[in-house]
Structure formats: C-alpha cells, structure tokens
Write a structure and sequence with these properties.
- By secondary structure, this protein is mainly beta.
- The chain has a single domain, classed as TolB, C-terminal domain (Neuraminidase, 6 Propeller).
- The structure holds beta-D-glucopyranose (BGC) and calcium ion.
- The site of calcium ion has 9 residues, from strand 10, strand 16, strand 20 and strand 24.
C-alpha cells in the first residue's frame, strides 16, 4: 500500500502541537499548542486555521460537547467554552491544584465521558519527575474520578470497537497498557501491558506519545523523538508498520477526512536549536496528513455532559 505524507498545516505550533480531534460535523481538525495556551481549529474545506488563546501555563485538550461548546483542558482544570471565540471558560472540574503537574492528553469514550491524564511538569523535553501523574474520567454528570495513579507521562488512549478494552500510554515507561473496560460504569480492571517499546529501541522508536485505533483494532502511535508513526497489533503486541514523518517529535495522531481514512499527525517545535529549526526540524510544529494507508478510524466521540 503506498501512502503520502504531507505537512497540511505548516509550522502552526510553536511549542507542542497535540490533542488532534477530528470533528466530522464541520470537517475540521481541532488541536492545541500546549505551552502557548492556544487551541486551533483547521477547516479542511477552506484550509483556514483559526485559533484562540487562554491564559494558562498549558492548554492540552479541546473536545466538542454534544450540547454546544467545547471542553477545554487547561493545566489543572477541565472547563467549558460556550462558543468558539467567546474566551469565557467555566470550570467544571479541577485536579491536582498546587502540584507540579499538568493535564496532558484526553479523549471521550463511547458514552461521552471525558478521560484525561496528567503528567509531572517537564524538566526538559520528555523528562519529568516520576509518578506524579494519574488518569481520570469526567462523567456526563461532570463528576471527576481518579482511576490510576503513579503515572509518569499520561498520554494517548483509545478503546476497541466493542468498547471492552481500553488502551492507555505512559510515555516514560514506553508502554501501552490495556485494561478491561466496563462501558456501563466507566471503570477499568485487569491492567496489563499490550505493547512494550522494549529495551534498546529508543533510537528507533523514541517514546510512545498519542495514539488512536483503526477499525480493525490496530494501534497507531506517534513516536516522540523518533519522527514516525507506528502501527502495532493490539493482541500480539507486534510492530506491523512504520511511517516516517519529517519532524522528530511527533506527538499525536487522529483519523480524519470525509472517510476517516487520513491520519493527521501533530508535532512539537520547542526544545530544538535555531540551527535544527532551520535545517532538519524545519517542519516541526506542523500538522501532517498521511493519505493512502489503507486503514481507517472511527468517528471521535464528543462530550455528552
Ligand atoms: C507531552 C510532552 C512530552 C511528550 C513525551 C506529550 O504528550 O505533551 O510534553 O514531551 O508527550 O512523549
Ligand atoms: Ca500526547
């Protein structure tokens, strides 16, 4: 299967591009620029990239709400933005106030609960104080619950098509965990390792960052520090495919496009030298689109609360 990789939104993030969410209703890609505190909306039909700024140290999640507006994940809170451009945030839930942590990735399950994880503040790109993070859910009554703690860098997550298994990445230990998932109650059990990047593979695979699943339950992972997206079998844990991306800190992935068969990839621009930014990392901070993979995803869930 031949595919192409194209920077569709060039250099739109100056810090850490992240949190891509495809909105089928508007055929737009939402994503964030974490340390700048910006959320972006890129309309794939007009190619217009609009953004909004929030005055927080970090902004890492934007997910549309079924009843209007968006949930925005800032450093320590999950808040509601009424309309694009309104700038007014209403706090729905707060976590880890006063701790040297921040919310990182998040995604809604099939019932529209928002799952989000935290990480220790970065000491340098990809390096954090250990085990300060946790994984939470915000249910549709907006009640926050902690499910897993002692996480280093909470990152990508997704569910199998039957919603019986949830996957969740801790980047620092370079593992994708699997849990049995009870969709009715929104609870996790039976934690095990589904994919282990393994010792000695750091030069090839870097750190597992954001992830998404395709309709065949294969796991697609952005490799931070390795400039690629990889596909793993969620049952055997075997590496199936690798796609090189011309930006070394690839951070997350989301299916998009009219048929949900284009894979959008965000990337990070911060932490490189001026020389790198002018040469090997010139495209870092762009959003890339991979076309022709021969795989497709499911529509992203909105928040139902
Ligand atoms: C975080 C970055 C971190 C990276 C490591 C990202 O999701 O936002 O701050 O460096 O993961 O993989
Ligand atoms: Ca991420």
């Amino acid at each position: 299967m031949s595919y192409t990789v194209e920077p569709v939104i060039k250099n739109s993030c100056s810090s850490i591009g992240e949190g891509p969410h495809w909105d089928a209703a508007s055929q737009s890609l939402f994503y964030v620029d974490i340390k700048r505190g910006d959320v972006h909306k890129w309309n794939s039909l007009t190619k217009e990239d609009s953004k909004m700024h929030f005055d927080y140290p970090t902004v890492s999640i934007i997910v549309p709400c079924a009843e209007g507006g968006y949930v925005i994940g800032t450093t320590h809170s999950l808040s509601h933005l009424e309309t694009w451009g309104s700038e007014k945030l209403t706090v729905w839930a707060e976590m880890e106030q006063g701790m040297p942590t921040q919310i990182n990735d998040g995604k809604c399950d099939a019932r529209g609960r928002l799952w989000s994880g935290t990480m220790g503040k970065e000491l340098s790109p990809g390096i954090v104080a250990p085990e300060l993070g946790a994984l939470y859910s915000l249910d549709t009554k907006r009640i926050l619950k902690k499910h897993v703690d002692k996480i280093n860098i909470s990152n990508g997550m997704d569910w199998t098509s039957d919603n019986k298994t949830m996957f969740f990445i801790d980047s620092t230990v370079r593992k994708v965990y699997a849990f049995d998932y009870d969709l009715e109650s929104g609870s996790l059990s039976n934690q095990r390792t589904a994919v282990d990047f393994g010792e000695g593979t750091e030069p090839q695979l870097g750190l597992p960052d954001g992830m998404t699943m395709d309709t065949e339950n294969k796991i697609w992972i952005a490799c931070y520090n390795a400039g690629k997206v990889v596909c793993f079998d969620s049952e055997t844990g075997k590496l199936l495919r690798e796609v090189k991306i011309p930006a070394s800190r690839t951070t997350s992935v989301a299916w998009g496009g009219a048929n949900l068969d284009d894979l959008y990839v965000t990337s990070c621009r911060h932490g490189f030298s001026e020389e790198q930014l002018q040469t090997t990392e010139a495209l870092s901070g762009s959003v890339f689109k991979i076309t022709g993979l021969g795989a497709k995803g499911r529509q992203a869930n909105n928040f139902q609360g």
